Amino acid sequence: MAGTNPSKYRTTPKDLKKLMKFVQKIYQNILSGQLYDNYLDGLHKIILEETGKSFVFGNKTFKEKYLEYIKFQINKVDQKLSNPEDKEGPSAFMTLLINYSLYRKLFNDEDSKLYKKIWALQKACPIIILYNNLSVNPGTFLVRKCPLKKATKCDPPDLDKFLRMELAAKDEEYCLKLNLYYVKLVQWIV
Amino acid sequence: MFANSVEDMQGFFGKINDFEQITSQSLKDIWKVSGSAFQHIKVKLDLQEYIPGLFDLLRPAPRVPISKIMSVFCFLQIETYNLKHEIESRFFDPLILFGESGFVFEEEGDDKETAGDHELQISRSLKVFNEFLNVIRRIVDLSKNIVYQMNGLYQAKDKVYQNSFKKMIYFEIFDNFGEILTTLFIVDLII
Fold it and tell me: CA distances (Å), B8 to each of B5, B76, B168, in order?
């Protein structure tokens, strides 16, 4: 409507063109649902353009330190998730996943052993709740954001089957857990 | 003691006012242009409380390389934390509500009835999207800076690395980096 009669809407064809470009940009970035992927690609591209292949991506010391951090975090997250009283386990797991995807993007290092270790952590935490009702399955994140080129046997092998089994187990436990919480609450009130 | 400090404050404000008047007067003398519409530039000072930061208290020696490195990473950490908090508090809720009609049950109308609704929603959210795009640009700059700083820190031949950072991992910066990128991933989930 504004395109056919811009003056009626107190605008000009030039401003309208600018607005269209901006809206397109929003749809390509924020509303595409691939902001994180675009960010990783963009960061890699900028660093490559500014410094070349060897300055950052070829720095073995930086790569080793990043790898050391990830390995340490795998053990730390494993310990946190095995302790039911530790509530920071899932968020630490998410931070690990994000750092792993960034590490893979920066150094293009496909170590299947490392991948397997991170994959196995989801047995202790199949779903990570991120914000309100927004959640992610670690396996799905790994498959979508940093998949391995070569097929590798991981544990759990089938993601859908594993999630269904976990859901059934949680469903069975639900009444018992609720009852336990109720008893605890009554004891606390009395 | 309180009375003395009040007197000191009044004296300070008096000096500031004098400074304003003197500088404004000198500017008035310079700009001798007649005419009622002309107004010369006035000096007006904006007094703000100075809040001492971490480095005012610590006073690190600038010549020691490790204090320089820690200062840089400290600022990067603060910036990362602030950006993460800004995204969570300012953008999550508008992005969640974008595209929602506000009704409990969505009514599906005809094409004629709903024509222009989407454009209206976009136009109402343009300000939020513009601010969010700026924040994303800042995140890209910040993360690029973090990667470069880490790359500079972890140089095998560098003496500072060999003496101070060879046998340790700087966990906090990796953790914060991961946390801020998690917010971008959450935005994808919201969409």
Answer: 5, 38, 50
